[in-house]
Amino acid sequence: MNDDLLQRLAQLASSPVLLVASDFDGTLAPIAERPELARADVAALDVMLTLARLDHTHAAIISGRGRDELARLCANHANHADLWLVGSHGAEFPGYPVPPFDAGDLSRVAEAFERARDAQLGIRSGVVVERKPAGVAFHYRRVQAELAGAARQLALDVAANFPGARAIDGDMVVEVCLTPSTKATALSRLRETVGATAVVFIGDDTTDEDAIRSLCIQDLGIKVGESASAARARVASVGEVRAVLARLLELRTQWLASRRLVPLERLSILSDQRTAVVVDPEGRVVWQCLPRIDSPSIFGALLGGPGAGSFDIGPAEQAAAPTQAYDPDTMVLVTKWNSLSMTDYLDCTGGRAYQRAGRTDLIRVIEGTGRVCVRFAPRLDFGRAVSRLRVIDDGLEIDGGPDPLVLRSPGVAWTIVDDGPHQTAHAEIELGDASLVLELRWGSANAGPNILSEPFRREQTRRFWSGWARSLRVPTLHADAVRRSALVIKAMCHGPTGAIVAAATTSLPEHLGGVRNWDYRFCWPRDAALGAAALVRVGNTGHAMRLLDWVLGVVDRCETPDRLRPIYTVAGQELPAEAEIGHLQGYGQSRPVRLSNAAALQVQLDVFGPIVDLVALLAERGMPISPDHLRLVSAMVRAVEARWSEPDHGIWEIRADRRHHVHSRVMCWMTASRAVQVQRHVLGRSDAAWERLAEAIRADVLEHGWSERAQCFSSAYGTDLVDAATLWIGLSGLVAPNDPRFVATVEAVERNLVEGPVVRRYLEHDGLPGGEGGMLICAGWLAESLHLIGRRDDALRMLERLVGLLGPTGIAPEQYDTRHGIALGNIAQVYSHLAIINAAVALDTPVA
Predict the structure, then answer these.
(1) Distance between the two ends of the chain, CA-based, in angstroms?
(2) Which of 86, 476, 639, 741 could form a disulfide with 562 if both were Cys (CB 3.0 to 4.6 A apart)?
(3) CA Rg, the chain, in Å?
(4) How far is CA 36 from CA 32, 112, 183, 203, 350, in A?
């Protein structure tokens, strides 16, 4: 291998998601005189299989051979679950039907080839006509050299007699394909399916050139042999292919071992109900946005590495990994090493949680013995604003932001160094009898002492959280996980307005290394209502009442209620356009890092149901439902009346054409049905028109939502796709728990979508590259559904596995990837935590 190829392999080895694809004959197997005599190079195939088994690495064979033939040739080496086998020049793609063609044409092409061969005495014994699943190959490798040209022309002439068929002129073979598939289309589909960020393709024949020409700048095409090629690299033989693959395997293995990503479930959060802080298992602050949770970050190492800003504190000497835990029933985090401990919290004294964002204190208290290293590296506005530091009395002043910002650190001697355009402060401190208190103050330029002592503020912050937690009525089943989940949902409540954000972070990937990275630091009225309802189920109604006030304000500003957006800022304003932060590399190189969320422009007709259900839930618990709440319910019903029969984008916000989603239609039914119950609770009577609306929607769902072929309620009308959201047909009460159609739907979800401890949303291709993990919320829905249909033991096991996905401090991500054993998606995910609460409450209550 030359130096250029070695350099290219090193670059490719560090791609977040790597796809290695190869032809079979001439690349992984020496060319044989007859196709059936071909034998794979065992070592090369073993390397391909080993690559396929690496994390975030995929390997594929794309061949003109039929897929069954490929499987036979690889039978002793390849597990099809690990190695992609694509046959018939891409026509036989796993999970996809072969493109349609006339089977009679296949026989006619084969017969024409055979007649042509038999008519030419000179080539008869040297030609093999091979029938394939979607084509016919005319092999003339064994024909005498002086007759090879005539044999080729004969085959091309025969192929020309079949209009619409595609002739492929390869190395001593002419093939007629009856489908439009090519190796280029197959490679493109593979790239999309696995979400590859870089591709290596190895081919030897002219039939491989379309795949090589389809490669992008970050990819590498490798040609085997001397014939003309668009490939940027070349090797001479199958043996050299083996060497290239072995070197790539070595480099890839080394890079994966060096990539030390903090597991998302091991992150912890702090909150003052206006912003949030993410602390990693080593005690580093790796994420914080100021002044609000949806503002630009000041520390962004979670998405951009150390250069994106962090606040690091730890022992100067090598120490064992610390342990972390929250003070019981609080969001006060304690990190402990052998000889010292650190307590982190966002100050919640003085009613701050309900005051306008703009004045926030992050307090870090270090106690114990020994030397402590501190690295303070703020990077304002995601690092886009130059962050400069200046030593002042009792601390540091940070220049570059729109508001005053200081780090109070009395007695600390700082060393300030230039770090690109920014500055970073370092200090080593010998701990004494007194604790070291560092206070990061946003909105104040005063680094002097606080009137209130730190111990007092810590105790008041503890009481803010623990007093609330003690007021909850948690079930005996998984009580600790339920209580922690409720605290996390409270932490995601925006105190000044009552909004509830979906999660604390942006752009933590649903596919590591891929583009499924979304900004969740906003309020989805649907998600927020579901989260508030979960809190109501464990005895807290205050956040639900405040959320309804926020929703009322949003609806009052809408042109009409049916134009309610799927997402708003915590202040109730419409989101800005979705944008990308190009200089941040993303968690695990998962780009882009996104700001805002384009799903705000979608039509999601399921938004109305959870809002009305929340009002009904509060009414059933005797809360003072006011005329304004009835006005809100009426507005939601009017919205459903106007739009329930329209297609929409659905709960999963698929960025594709709108469809008649069954879940959305069920939520429209729930809007009208629960509105009737609200009226009966509050007014003692109900509106007959609302009752008729609910029945009309129910009848529509039952008529069009059921798939005879799939034997379950499907994702959308006219499809046979299984979707976990259809469990709501029973969870909502639209059908009874013992309805055979609901039971069949539960079983279909269980059969098709369960992956270990989680449940996939769906299996359909959604227009985005790569896949995703299973959803924790879907696992919660399935646990509830299994309980409803009388399978309590199965439900308990599902809930047990779900709770087991919580991190050491009880924080939940959005998804879990069973193949790689990693958490995915934004953390402190309200959906995941409400799923634990709802399932535990449901399973703690016997089914009537």
Answers:
(1) 72
(2) 639
(3) 31
(4) 8, 22, 21, 20, 81
Give CA–CA dist 186/132, Å, rounded: 17
Whole-angstrom distance, CA of residue 346 vs CA of residue 275: 9
The whole-angstrom separation of Cα 364 and Cα 826 is 24
Query: Rounded to 5 degrees, what are φ and ψ at 600?
Result: -60, -20
Per residue in 791-804, pLDDT (tens digit) is: 999 999 999 999 99
Residue 644: how many CB atoms within 10 A of its CB? Answer: 22
What token pair was written down for 605?
A: 């007709």
Residues 281, 300: Cα–Cα separation, whole Å: 16
The enclosing H or E element of 488 equals helix 479-491
Q: Give the HSE-up count for residue 33: Cα atoms under 13 Å, Cβ half-sphere.
A: 6
Cα separation, 43 vs 515, whole angstroms: 34
pLDDT at 79 over 70: no
Residue 78 has pLDDT above 70, yes or no: no
pLDDT at residue 77 tops 70: no
Asked whether 596 and 575 are in contact (CB, 8 A), the reply is yes
Asked whether the beta carbons of 408 and 394 are under 8 A apart, the reply is: yes
Alpha helices (H) along 54-205:
67-73, 103-119, 148-160, 183-194
**Cβ atoms of 496 and 565 closer than 8 Å:** no
Contact 320, 337 (CB under 8 A): yes
Give residue 127's pLDDT: 84
Confidence band of 180 (pLDDT split at 50, 70, 90):
confident
Name the token pair of 179. Answer: 């489908």
DSSP letters along 594-649, please? EES-GGGGS--TTSHHHHHHHHHHHHHTT----HHHHHHHHHHHHHHHHHTTS-B-
Strand 166-170, strand 135-139: pairing: unpaired
Mark residue 511 as left, alpha or beta (left: phi above 0; alpha: psi -120 to 50; beta: remaining). beta
Kindly report whether the peptide bond that precedes residue 322 is cis, defined as omega within 30 degrees of 0: no
Maximum separation of any 2 CA atoms in the chain, in Å? 106
Q: What is the pLDDT of residues 310-331, one digit of tens each?
A: 999 999 988 889 999 999 999 9
Give pLDDT tens digits for 423-453: 999 999 999 888 999 999 999 999 999 999 9
Listed range (37-46, 579-588, 730-739) with the worst mean pLDDT = 37-46
**Do β-strands 276-279 and 268-271 pair in parallel, antiparallel, or remain unpaired?**
antiparallel
Tokens read off for 784: 């509830």
Spatial separation of the C-alpha atoms in residues 218 and 197, rounded to whole Å: 8
Q: Are 378 and 390 in contact (CB under 8 A)?
A: no
Token pair recorded at residue 520:
């969740």
Q: Are strands 822-824 and 128-132 parallel, antiparallel or unpaired?
A: unpaired
Tens of pLDDT, residue by residue over 707-718, are 999 999 999 999
Type of residue at 196? A
Lowest-confidence pick of 93-97, 515-519, 657-661, 728-732: 93-97
> What pLDDT score does 81 carry?
63
What span, in angstroms and rounded, lies between the C-alpha atoms of 118 and 61?
33
Nearest to 830 by CA among 477, 481, 520, 516: 520
CA atoms 683, 685, 689, 690: torsion sign: positive
Tokens of 552: 């009322």
The whole-angstrom separation of Cα 386 and Cα 400 is 6
Give the distance, in angstroms, between the CA of residue 128 and the centroid of all CA atoms in the same chain: 49
In this predicted structure, the answer to whether residue 736 has a pLDDT above a threshold of 70 is yes
* Cβ neighbours of residue 696 closer than 8 Å, sequence gap 6 or more: none
Q: Backbone phi, then psi, for 433, in 5-degree steps?
A: -70, -35
* CA–CA distance, 485 with 508 (Å, rounded to integer): 20
Other Cβ atoms less than 10 A from the Cβ of 490: the count is 24
